[in-house]
């Protein structure tokens, strides 16, 4: 099996490359050993690398990361084609149909006033699709278990809210945050490790709900917080190195002072922008 020339469309070349890698006669041994389960972690990893390039605004890297993610779609599609399940064209047609079906205000006669209204209508269409597909008995059945915990928490809450199981205001959620924090303190006072873990989980879950009520993507917000922590901690490391000092020989007060320096530098930079 030969790879099409550069005159072929880029997607046809990629599909042919994957077919060759999966060819039992002369293909790649590693690629031939893979299945849906073994490839799934790589698919998730590549999606995170796309998000990371966007977060760092490294758009020169984004092209490559999107290519890596596309390769995952091609890989899964090729394995499905080998098993007689579906092929890449079926994948493309499925998303074409879905996008047209879920945008009746663009491809049909429906009218939508704004993005918020469209989001409500999108969820209604998805609910109708779930009901028609008979995927499960519970409203929550098709929320993927493999999602990152924060993302899944927000999706579970959003799904429950579609039937009215939701606090009416963000202030009510804040009250629940205070309640859960008090329960964390109580578990800590009792020195009960299992209760502490459970109550911290409840606190995080409620904070996630607060983010949802305020229209904050908590997964993205947490990634940003991680990036901010890393940036400020690196400032501490660089500052100490410039003094000839070491982290493990520096007091917490001194490190906190450098942390605050990093915050002031960032604040001054934002003001200049």
Total number of distinct structural domains: 3
Shape field:
globular
Instruction: Please identify the top-level CATH class of the largest domain.
Output: Mainly Alpha
Rounded to an integer in angstroms, the radius of gyration calculated over CA atoms is 25 Å
Report the strand count: 0
Overall residue-averaged pLDDT value: 90
Largest sheet features: none
Q: Can you tell me the CATH topology of the largest domain?
A: Helix Hairpins
Count of DSSP H/I helices: 12
What does this entry look like structurally?
- The chain has 3 domains: 10-101, Helix Hairpins, CATH 1.10.287.1080; 136-216, Helix Hairpins; 220-272.
- Helices cover 73% and strands 0% of the residues.
- The protein has 12 helices and no strands.
- Helix 1 (10-21) crosses helix 4, helix 3 (36-55) runs antiparallel to helix 4 and helix 11 packs across helix 12 (252-272).
- It is globular and about 65 Å long.
Key terms for this structure?
273 residues, mainly alpha, Helix Hairpins
Secondary structure elements and pairings:
Layout: H1 10-21, H2 29-33, H3 36-55, H4 59-82, H5 88-101, H6 104-107, H7 115-133, H8 149-161, H9 170-189, H10 193-213, H11 218-243, H12 252-272
GO molecular function: ATP diphosphatase activity
Catalytic activity: ATP + H2O = AMP + diphosphate + H(+)
Protein name: Nucleoside triphosphate pyrophosphohydrolase
Compact description:
By secondary structure, the chain is mainly α.
């Amino acid at each position: 099996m030969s790879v099409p020339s550069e005159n072929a469309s880029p997607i046809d070349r990629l599909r042919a490359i994957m077919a060759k890698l999966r060819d039992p006669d002369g293909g790649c041994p590693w690629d031939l050993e893979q299945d849906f389960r073994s490839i799934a972690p790589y698919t998730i990893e590549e999606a995170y690398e796309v998000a990371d390039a966007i977060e760092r605004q490294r758009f020169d890297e984004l092209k490559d990361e999107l290519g890596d993610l596309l390769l995952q779609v091609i890989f899964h599609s090729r394995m499905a084609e080998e098993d007689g399940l579906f092929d890449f064209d079926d994948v493309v047609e499925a998303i074409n149909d879905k996008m047209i079906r879920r945008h009746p205000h663009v491809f049909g006669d429906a009218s939508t006033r704004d993005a918020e209204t469209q989001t409500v209508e999108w969820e209604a269409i998805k609910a109708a699709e779930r009901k028609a597909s008979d995927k499960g008995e519970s409203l929550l059945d098709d929320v993927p278990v493999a999602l990152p915990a924060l993302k899944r928490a927000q999706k579970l809450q959003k799904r429950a809210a579609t039937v009215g199981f939701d606090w009416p205001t963000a202030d009510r959620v804040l009250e629940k945050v205070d309640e859960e924090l008090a329960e964390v303190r109580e578990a800590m006072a009792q020195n009960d490790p299992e209760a502490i873990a459970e109550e911290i989980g409840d606190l995080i879950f409620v904070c996630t709900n607060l983010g949802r009520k305020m229209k904050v993507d908590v997964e993205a917000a947490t990634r940003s917080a991680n990036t901010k922590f890393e940036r400020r901690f690196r400032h501490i490391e660089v500052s100490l190195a410039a003094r000839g000092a070491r982290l493990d020989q520096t007091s917490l007060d001194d490190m906190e002072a450098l942390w605050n320096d990093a915050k002031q530098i960032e604040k001054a930079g934002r003001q200049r922008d």
